[in-house]
Amino acid sequence: MDWLHEAQAVGAKAVLINAGAYTHTSIALHDAIKSIKVPVIEVHLSDPMKREAFRHISYVGMVAHSCFAGHGAKSYELALDAAARL
Fold first, then answer.
1. pLDDT in tens, 23-59
2. Directed axis angle between helix 2-9 and helix 27-34, to 10°?
3. Quick check: helix, strand or coil at residue 37?
4. What is the share, in percent, of the chain residues with pLDDT greater than 90?
5. Average pLDDT of the chain, as a whole number
6. Which helix (H) or strand (E) holds 9?
7. Host H or E run for residue 23
8. Residues 38, 4: contact at Cβ < 8 Å?
9. Are 28 and 61 in contact (CB under 8 A)?
10. Which CATH number is correct for 2-84, 3.40.640.10, 3.30.1330.10, 3.40.50.9100, 1.20.140.150?
11. In 10 A of CB 85, how many CB atoms?
12. What is the phi/psi pair of residue 16, to 5°?
């Protein structure tokens, strides 16, 4: 959460985040993302919607600018390309 606020403080253009299990459990992370103006792009190697039902809820995704999931390592490339276009 500190890192998200730091990103805003230093003028970052965007933040890419793979929050792992925090994606599905952290209201604090949700609130931190919501509190900054820097666009946050959610990244997942696998597609959470194709996994266990509890992974279908993304507190990060509720406030993220966009999401890239299910493309393996390519998800990071796609997210970085999207960030560069912001």
1. 999 999 999 999 999 999 999 999 998 898 888 999 9
2. 10
3. coil
4. 91
5. 95
6. helix 2-9
7. none
8. yes
9. no
10. 3.40.50.9100
11. 7
12. -100, 135
